[in-house]
Amino acid sequence: MRLTIAICLAVLVPLAAFAKSPSDIADLVGSRAAGAESEMQARGYVDVGGNNTWWNADKKQCVKVRVSQGRYASISQTKASSCGQKATGAMKCPPDLSQADLYKYPGCSL
């Protein structure tokens, strides 16, 4: 009986509950997605081309946001390459970078 309960709990508890969100944005879990996106930007994150992946150049941190029913369900740190960052060498920012192309160069700013 105890084994059955333990197996059920292991299957039913989502893995996202065990993932720790980066401390600077952990409070956004549970927030409405539209408002949370603005807050992510205010905290230095740039949406890197959709798919709910965000890059913070100051922290050199890439995060993946999972949205469920219009709210941020989880935020998890992921590898820098998921945000278009190369493992070695500094990214070169084009001199004529526009706001529309900023997502292509997540480490750059205007």
From TrEMBL:
The keyword Signal applies. It comes from Rhizobium altiplani. It comes from the Bacteria. Residues 1-19 form the signal peptide. Keywords: Signal. The lineage of its organism: Bacteria, Pseudomonadati, Pseudomonadota, Alphaproteobacteria, Hyphomicrobiales. This is Surface antigen domain-containing protein.
